[in-house]
Amino acid sequence: MKKLLISVLLTALIVSSFSGCGSAKSKEAIEKYGSATLKLYNWGEYMGENLISNFEDEFGVKVIIEYYDSNEMMYTKLQSGESYDVLVPSDYMIQRLISDGSLLALDKTKLPNMSNLSDAVMNLAFDPENTYSIPYMWGNVGIVYNTNNVDVADLENEGFAIMKDTKYKGQIYMYDSERDSFMIALKALGYSANTEDDQQIQEAYQWLVELNNTMDPVYVTDEVIDYMMNGDKDLAIVYSGDATTILDENEDMSFYVPEEGTNLWCDSMVIPANAENPLLAYEFINYVLTYDASLDNTETVGYASPNAQVLADVTAEGGLYADNEAYLPRMNYALDEVFEDNLVLKQKLAELWIKVKAAN
Amino acid sequence: MILVPMLLIVLYAFTRKGNDVTTFLFTLENFKKFFSDTIFLEVLWRSLRVAIETTIVCILIGYPAAYFISKSQEEVKMRWVLLITIPTWINMLVRTYAWIGILQDDGIINSILGVFGISPLTMLHTDFAVVLGMVYNFIPFMILQIYTSLTKMDHSLIEAASDLGANKFESFLRVTLPLSLPGIISGITLVFLPAVSSFFIPKLLGGGQYVLIGTVIESQFLTSGDWNFGSAISLIMALIIMVSMYLTRKVDRGEQSETGVL
To answer: I want to staple A170 with a disulfide (CB 3.0 to 4.6 A). Which of A123, A124, A216, B80 is the partner?
Structure first.
């Protein structure tokens, strides 16, 4: 009996020393969190280069990462019963997950680093009290323009309507997505981007059809980054994070966000209700909020950090994004709206959008 | 197993949204929606036009190419066939992306033109780019089909034709061409079918505004989430394709019986 016990203990010791990289640390981690593996499901190319390895070393754990390229893909995977510890969905998708009851209400005492967050990204409409979500990256939508060929006065006077100014015919890239294009039209007309009013949607539809028929636009998605870096056209609708990259590469380009308001978006970290290792998930989220991890993230990805100190430092004199007009999103501006999750509206707009594009 | 997805499409096309497994709400609404909106008919026409243009260009380039290959020496022949097949080993999407780099405003072609002081041409996001992309991707099918039918041809027939006093042109027109017709016809089916329903070539080379019927179907499934309408359009497309295949077969048979008389 004694022999058996010893051999069992011995095997346990050997097994535990082989599993994980740092034996003592990983043992500690298992004791503390129940398991030393974290399952993370994030967007592709959306993390600081050293973030994961640093986290693994510091806490003696192993991070398994999977990537998605759309919120819908992530949602479908989650619906199929797959379990993850941390997800990074966008605003409207978080709203949907909350109403599905798929998210864990966060215990804020486990997230002391929340105090590092900028108040501009807190308490947004999709999760008013940040009960379920902690901001990861954020930004808005604006116009990248070639400073040599576009008159800034036109941008200031016309806002998004510059996309219908025939002076720039054949010189524009629109973003090929129903929600973003209708946002532009609705904002240009002075309506809310979340409107459900049929009359207003019809007006926006007409606005877009007119643009399509008079301006010779090209509708693109991520290719716009390459095209604008090359300076192929003078005006383009671009997400601020992508605009940061364009402005870094092509110094003729600048970024303008119209005064009539735009879409403000925020990708946030959440813990699904079926997470297997919520304790480690808290640790990870708290780690991402540290100064070093946030800095690593924003320097690698180029999207705006939610960390107030990082934001201040990289945009300050001599900072990495000090001269980049696109990096820092406009803060606390009443007309900037977050998209609300509305499947019926999304389908209606998608149907109208294909008609807009087919109209020529 | 092969039929199940097809049957599901038919089922979706004739039903309304919100079915569960037990109850089906049958409707013709989806078809009405398609035919009552001129925009969808315009898109359909545009798709057919692009596919027809692609097919014609493929024949015009593919036939002489196939003829030339079939006339060349045995080992050279195999080399040519290999050269034509090699591009199809690489993923179509990757090859289409490569064309973006070639056609772009500051792409390869325009850089070369620039050396000679010619101002850059806008080629990307035009009709030209879309047809070019499709011809490039689908022409191997046309060439190989025609080539096969040309090599299978009995050469003594041409000798017979010249014995009977036909000159080279006449014997081509009255012997070679009719006998290679089955190759052309199966080439047409192999080029026309993917061309009429393709959606990523127009999207990448034509830009998002280049809406073809494949794009509409794709968006019904991926963005609007209206699977029923998407299935209905797919079904309409399938019908059009079946009818056109039936017609080409008929032409094929008619021609064959004629050559039999000859």
So the answer is: A216
